[in-house]
Structure formats: C-alpha cells, structure tokens
Design a protein that fits this description.
142 residues; mainly beta; Immunoglobulin-like; 4-stranded mixed beta sheet; 1 helix; globular; binds copper (II) ion
Length: 142
C-alpha cells in the first residue's frame, strides 16, 4: 500500500529552464567586440561566454551590460574605481551584468536574468575602450 502524502496528483517540481547561451569575443587584438549585436528574450536566464581573443597586446577587456543612456556614467565611475575593481563602479545601479577583466586568451562566463524588452548597450569599461568597444543586446518580448 502506498500513500500519497501531498495529494493525488501533485505538481511535478519545476524544471529549471536551460539558460540561453550567448557568445561574445574581442575582435582579435582590436578594440571591438564580435558580434556587436546579441539577442535574447526578456526574463530568460542568460549564460554569457566572453572570450578575449587577443594574443600579443597585453591589455585587459571586460564585457559590461549597461542601462540605456548610462554608458558614460559607467565608464567614468569605473575609471574612478580602478583596475582592482575591474573598472566597474562601486555602485552598480547602472550595470545589469559584467564579467571580470580578462587577459589575452582568457575567458569568463557569467549568468544573469535578461531585463525587460529593449536595446541595452554593452561596453568594455577599461578606460578609453568603450568608444570603440561596444555593442547592443536586443531583448525581445518573450
Ligand atoms: Cu577593452
């Protein structure tokens, strides 16, 4: 005899959805991302894989997802915070997601929840890089 302590037809436990995996890299040694556009649905779990594809020039890069219109604020506050802080502002109100700094050949993987639908800029916050090193995450209605 078996007993069902929690009802005849209990709900199955929720299965954690697989994250949407996005890949972005530096364009070799250049101060550029490839691709410069990424897309995901709103509200999904995103696993972002960032690869520093440079080899020769010993400069570090990161990938920082920023609220629309706030790239300059994040750049300035990040520069003030310094390299030990990954060139990221202490106050993260304008930063939606960020990898640590990566050296040539390095890779970082982060996970975050996609924000509401819209276009969100991403930059490298190493001082002087965001002017050329930027792209857009298009978040679509899920
Ligand atoms: Cu950079």
């Amino acid at each position: 005899m078996t007993f069902s302590a929690c009802g005849e037809h209990p709900e199955p436990p929720p299965v954690a959805a697989e994250p949407v995996v996005l890949h972005v890299a530096t364009d070799g040694e250049f101060l550029a991302f490839t691709p410069t556009e990424l897309t995901c649905p709103a509200g999904v779990r995103v696993r972002l894989v960032f690869k520093h594809d440079g080899q020769r020039i010993p400069q570090k890069h990161n990938w920082v997802l920023v609220l629309p219109g706030k790239t300059e604020d994040v750049e300035k506050a990040g520069a003030a915070a310094g390299e030990a802080a990954n060139w990221l502002p202490g106050n993260r109100r304008n930063v939606l997601a960020a990898t640590p700094l990566c050296s040539p050949g390095g890779e970082a993987i982060i996970e975050f929840t996609a924000p509401a639908p819209g276009d969100y800029p991403y930059i490298c916050s190493t001082p002087g890089h965001a002017f050329e090193m930027h792209g857009v995450l298009h978040v679509t209605k899920s």
